[in-house]
UniProtKB/TrEMBL annotation:
InterPro entries: ATPase_NBD, Hexokinase, Hexokinase_BS, Hexokinase_C, Hexokinase_N
SUPFAM superfamilies noted in UniProt: Actin-like ATPase domain (SSF53067)
Reaction catalysed by this enzyme: D-glucose + ATP = D-glucose 6-phosphate + ADP + H(+); a D-hexose + ATP = a D-hexose 6-phosphate + ADP + H(+); D-fructose + ATP = D-fructose 6-phosphate + ADP + H(+)
Pathway(s) the chain acts in: Carbohydrate metabolism; hexose metabolism; Carbohydrate degradation; glycolysis; D-glyceraldehyde 3-phosphate and glycerone phosphate from D-glucose: step 1/4
Similarity remark: Belongs to the hexokinase family.
Protein name: Phosphotransferase
GO annotations of cellular component type: cytosol; mitochondrion
Transmembrane segments: 12-30
Domain spans labelled Hexokinase C-terminal: 251-496
Top-level taxonomy: Eukaryota, Viridiplantae, Streptophyta, Embryophyta, Tracheophyta
Source species of the chain: Rhynchospora breviuscula
Domain Hexokinase N-terminal: 47-244
Alphabetically ordered keywords of this record: ATP-binding, Glycolysis, Kinase, Membrane, Nucleotide-binding, Transferase, Transmembrane, Transmembrane helix
Length: 506
């Protein structure tokens, strides 16, 4: 009996032990589930907050359109009248198709620079031949000296010219179109001083110096006989190529590493230069819209922090919400906060904490990942951010963040474009400046260039969709046309148009 009772005791003991263990496991499971639920809840909250902060309902976009128009007027009224610089380009004639000869171009302004040779055949024959060579700009040159930067590009141009001319024969008088994609205060079509650097460039001794003189000096040192015929912004080159192919092109937008727009303005609307401009037609205005600002822009704490950590604080506010230099970084900041506050990515000591660890092209790849298991997202997290095995649910959340960042940027670009159209009376809302009666919409083309629009179809769709939302039926007459290498090719065309004695004024 005694033994039996002891056995029962042991049995009860074991049973009680098992029950306790099961209880502990159950409690652990429940608490894990609760924790995981809380983690998800926090992650979802952060995404929802971000989405709300980035909201661009059509009403807000229209406010941005109107603010753009107001700032355009202010920037045209006086220098310093607005954050929009509305810079004169002195481009008052655009290529029309009868230009002839061989021209060179040098295109500097993003992560790559390009040298080009363009052969034009004259009336009816368009561009006969074009050779383009792209080179990455060594990172250290972007913060070096004028002598080093211009010496480097001059030597690459020389190499290119020698190779081309060894095959095709030497050209007597070589003319160059120079695309320099930074804010420049021009004093003529072939001279101007740098106002500030953007996009991570910072060469101190370039300020207040004539950019063309710097290049011309470097070309002379290389022993390269070449005349810089025009100095243009990349937007202006893009407009020139757009106009060359389609005369209804009135504006151009770049959405690449940086962002900007230019358009054809009536000379009499450029109040700040009244009396100083001799041509009575039109002139291309470089808006430098990357610096546009209005309180209507949907700004989140992530944008504020990105700006505070940037070398050009309080500058280029629009650009910091739109362009390729920043979109990946905004997404990274949001994902990092989610990682810290919700632990859905596991260990946060990962690369996700490093500024600019997520580039915009990678962000776009994740956004456009249409595989059922989002394997691109998984592989980018593993390889670039060193975060392995993120579950499908988390991958979906990553795609959502990329979508919010990209959609806001694209819709703001759309609002900017409509702002320009409104200013020049092509949005169907007011009297037309061309003297046409209202109600007769005019075909209007905007040339667009840059990786974000060219190579990122979801971004492009968002831009197009928002233009329709803002403009309604009028959008049927608005065409956004992509150009490739327009910034450089257009500079060569402008050099040709400028040197031609058959100018067609705008
Ligand atoms: C520059 C503009 C340029 C744009 C696109 C901006 O950062 O200020 O001059 O057109 O980038 O390259």
């Amino acid at each position: 009996m005694g033994g039996g009772g002891g056995g029962r005791g042991v049995w009860f003991g074991v049973a009680a032990g098992c029950a306790a263990a099961a209880c502990v496991i159950a409690v652990a499971l429940v608490s894990r589930r609760v924790k995981s639920h809380r983690r998800w809840q926090r992650a979802a909250e952060l995404v929802a907050e971000f989405e709300e902060g980035c909201g661009t309902p059509v009403g807000r976009l229209k406010q941005v359109v109107d603010a753009m128009v107001v700032e355009m007027h202010a920037g045209l009224a006086s220098d310093g009248g607005s954050k929009l610089k509305m810079l004169l380009t002195y481009v008052d004639s655009l290529p029309h198709g009868s230009e002839k000869g061989i021209y060179y171009a040098l295109d500097l302004g993003g992560t790559n620079f390009r040298v080009l040779q363009v052969q034009l055949g004259g009336k009816g024959s368009n561009i006969l031949k074009q050779k383009v060579e792209r080179q990455p700009i060594p990172q250290e040159l972007m913060t070096s000296t004028c002598e080093k930067m211009f010496g480097f590009i001059a030597s690459k141009l020389k190499q290119f010219v020698e190779e081309e001319e060894s095959r095709e024969g030497t050209i007597e008088t070589r003319a160059l179109g120079f695309t320099f994609s930074f804010p420049v205060k021009q004093s003529s079509v072939s001279s101007g001083v740098l106002m500030k650097w953007t996009k991570g460039f910072s060469i101190e001794d370039a300020f207040d110096r004539d950019i063309v003189a710097c290049l011309q000096e470097a070309l002379t040192k290389e022993g390269l006989n070449m005349q810089v015929a025009v100095l243009v912004n990349d937007t202006v080159g893009t407009l020139a190529l757009g106009h060359y192919h389609d005369q209804d092109t009135v504006a151009a937008v770049i959405i690449g590493t940086g962002t900007n727009a230019c358009y054809v303005e009536r000379t009499d609307a450029i109040i700040k230069y009244q009396g100083l401009l001799t041509n009575y037609g039109g002139m291309v205005i470089n808006m430098e819209w990357g610096n546009f600002w209005t309180s209507h822009l949907p700004r989140t704490p992530y944008d504020v922090e990105l700006d505070e950590d940037s070398p050009n604080r309080t500058d280029q506010g629009f650009e910091k919400m739109i362009s390729g230099m920043y979109l990946g970084e905004i997404a990274r900041r949001v994902l990092f906060r989610i990682a810290v506050e919700s632990e859905v990515f596991g260990d946060v000591g990962s690369k996700l904490s490093q500024p600019f660890a997520l580039s915009t092209p990678l962000m776009a790849t994740m956004h456009e990942d249409d595989s059922a298991d989002l394997r691109e997202v998984k592989s980018i997290f593993e390889q670039t951010l060193q975060i392995p095995d993120i579950p499908l649910k988390t991958r979906r959340l990553v795609v959502k963040v990329c979508d919010i960042v990209s959609r806001r940027a694209a819709r703001l670009v759309a609002a900017g474009i409509v702002g320009i159209l409104k200013k020049i009376g092509r949005d169907g809302s007011g009297p037309s400046t061309s003297g046409r009666p209202r109600g007769q919409p005019r075909r209007t083309v905007v040339a667009v260039e840059g990786g974000l629009y060219e190579g990122y179809s979801l971004f492009r769709d968002y831009v197009d969709e928002a233009i329709v939302e803002i403009l309604g039926d009028v959008a049927q007459n608005i065409f956004l046309k992509t150009t490739v290498d327009g910034s450089g090719t257009g500079a060569a065309l402008l050099a040709a148009a400028h040197l031609s004695n058959r100018k067609s004024y705008i």
